[in-house]
Amino acid sequence: MLFNYLWNYMVLDGVRVSELIEYRDEVNKEHGGRAYNNNNHTDGRGAKPGPSENADMGRLNELGLDIYHGKENFGYIGGYEKLKESIKRDALYPLLHKDVYKDLERNTKVNDANSSPGAILFYGPSGTGKTLMAKVIANEEKISLVYLPLGKIFSKWMGESAQKLESAFNAVEAYSKQNGKTILFIDEIDALGSRSDGTQAADMDDRRVINTFLTKLDGFNSNVSDGNLVIIGSTNHHVALDKAIRSRFGSEIQFPLPAKEDRVKIMNLYAKHLSDSDLDSIASATEGFSGRDLKSIADMALRRAGQEIVEKNASYKVPPFSYYMEAAKTLSTKTKVVLTGDSARSYQ
Predict the structure, then answer these.
(1) Strands 15-16 and 229-235
(2) Which end of the chain, N or C, is less surrounded by CB atoms within 10 Å?
(3) What pTM, to 2 d.p., does this model score?
(4) Which range of residues forms the domain containing residue 12?
(5) Res 227: pLDDT
């Protein structure tokens, strides 16, 4: 009995042995996979995932990772035209159309050196579209996006966080080998190394997590020209990143707060009934707002209009312009902190 108890609760690579056995048995089943066994589920490319893909999805879910197949395209992102072009030139095309760039390298370089940027870092204030852009890239290329918020892998037990992080990377690598090109989007990169309470043990545990992360990125960057995996990291505070972590990203792409012309285009996505003059007025009143803030303004105006239709039988079909301006004022006074001076320059 004692042996069975120890066997069931023994941990290997951050996972109980009993769970590994269950996972192995599922893989061997014709319709393996617990998390994605809905017969109506498709993989975003119009096809239902096969047994092996279902099993891989189940394993990723067990480790706290989500697989996303969505419908977003570049039209979902208002403005940011220069950023979109930079994404395509410096990240999307080199990583997802490697054969094109390999031919260019062979025809132009003496030593056939790899020009791929490797892992990519998205940085900028919260709400500027970093996660949305990763979803757009995945949908544009009809590939999977695996979302890993680093906060999910942290554990209070010494050594377990590093083990869970390594298991997560291994599972995503296995998924990409089995199912083709995959984006691993790692959110909250700045959480690495930020959990220490000042004790030597906590410092050592944080360093173990960072070293695991660095080792995995080194392995990815050394094989980037041959693999199916694309790694994108995201942070709101890139200047606070450990220098060793930041150096592993071959390309950094800034997501700034939207300029006025971008705010006009973003608001048009959420309030298409407003005139150009109205949109311009809202954009002028929302300097320092993120794309997420602008969506909140539209949502506030819509909810107010809906309440008045329900309670007062209001006759209008869309929120009036004044509701948007009042929502902008409310959001500005309650929650907005406009980045200026050193705060804004820290994102440069």
Answers:
(1) unpaired
(2) N
(3) 0.74
(4) 2-62
(5) 67
List phi, psi (to 5°) of 259: -70, 170
User: Between β-strands 120-123 and 11-12, what pairing exists: parallel, antiparallel or unpaired?
Assistant: unpaired
Inter-axis angle of helices 51-62 and 17-28, nearest 10: 160
Q: What's the average model confidence in pLDDT over 39-61?
A: 51
Copy the structure tokens of residue 182: 């995959």
Task: Name the range with the highest mean pLDDT among 62-66, 218-222, 258-262.
Answer: 258-262
State the CB neighbour count (10 A cutoff) for residue 224.
20
- Half-sphere exposure for 95 (CA within 13 Å, toward CB): 29
**Which residues does residue 12 pair with via DSSP β-bridges, in sequence order?**
15
Cα end-to-end span (Å), the chain: 61
My answer on whether 249 and 264 are in the same domain is no
**Same structural domain for residues 237 and 328?**
no
